[in-house]
Amino acid sequence: MVGTEMNQLPSIQRPAKEFPTAIALETTSICNSRCVMCPAREGIERNPAVMPREAFEHIIDQCIGRVVHVLTLTHFGEPLLDPGIVERVSYARRSLPKGMQLTIWSNGTKMTEELAGGLLDAGLSVMNFSIDSIHKATYEAIRVGLHFEDAIAGIKYFVRANEMRGHPCQVRIHATAVPINRPEMDFFVAYWENIIGVDYADWIPAEANRDIDPTVVTDASVLEPCASPFNNFTVLSDGRVVLCCKDHDGFMSLGNVFEQNVEEIWASEQYVEIRMLHNAGRKDEIPLCATCGARR
Fold it and tell me: Helix or strand or coil: residue 32?
């Protein structure tokens, strides 16, 4: 099948694992913002939904006894709009190893004192806030539909609750750089790194985030295989499995966990084919990977 010459093979050959080590479950695809850098800003073709509790717990149950390093309860959508998010965190923490990183990504605008306490008591280990700017006008121009004051208040609620409990959870602040906020990124990181209760701050350019640009073609000289097909398992709220966080609308569906087991999908012919193409330096033959600005 693979006709690539040996001297053209990537220097890294990634091994296939028996089970994904990083799992992302989109507990809800509902969002309260239309961020300018988000490919879902114009809406998604699939119906915004909350993942059924029974389906969520069935997925978690399949991970018991497996080596899962990271469980992220976010994909597209705002996880704090999921009315059952605290119960989901609690179920995952009770079921899976204590050392597993259990994390969510949020814009923070729906965080309350009660919700912060609930998430922490349930066992959340990493809280990621996406805020993009410390200036109101810039923030609201990027995170369309949100209010800067709500985001700052949400972060404060969580930091305070975390400190009251002895700081059991890492607090991370992230920005996505677009033209309007890129000049402030160094200051942005320095500002948050000096806030007591914040453990980490960083930023990435929009083109390396989730944006899928069909005009961008993967640089064929970069052959190294992406880690996602070998480690990551991403599930949409409707049960469809997608290749990675770049896929907001099930552009490349690999199966459905409402109908199949995680292990069955992970070992499927389609997944195996994708891994072979990556290891052969031919990932540009995969439509989603060929237009990925983060893997160039």
Answer: coil
Q: Left, alpha or beta for 99 (phi > 0: left; psi -120 to 50: alpha)?
A: alpha
DSSP label at 50? Answer: B
Average pLDDT, the chain: 88
Q: Which tokens hold the place of 134?
A: 């410390």
pTM, two decimal places? 0.89
| 288 touches 278 (CB < 8 A) | no
Rounded Cα gap, residues 85 and 73, in angstroms = 8
One-character DSSP codes across 54-81? HHHHHHHHHHTTS---EEE--SSS-GGG
The β-bridge partners of 35 are 143
DSSP characters over 213-274 = -TT----TT--PPPSHHHHEEEE-TTSEEESSTT-SS-TTEEEETTTS-HHHHHTSHHHHHH
What is the average per-residue pLDDT within 135-159?
97
Q: Measuring CA to CA, which residue among 70, 12, 53 is closest to residue 226?
A: 12
User: What are the backbone angles phi and psi of residue 160, rounded to the nearest 5°?
Assistant: -65, -45
Among residues 103, 43, 52, the alpha carbon closest in space to that of 77 is found at 43
Q: Residues 256, 240: contact at Cβ < 8 Å?
A: yes
Which of 22, 220, 187, 179 is closest to 102 using CA atoms? Answer: 22
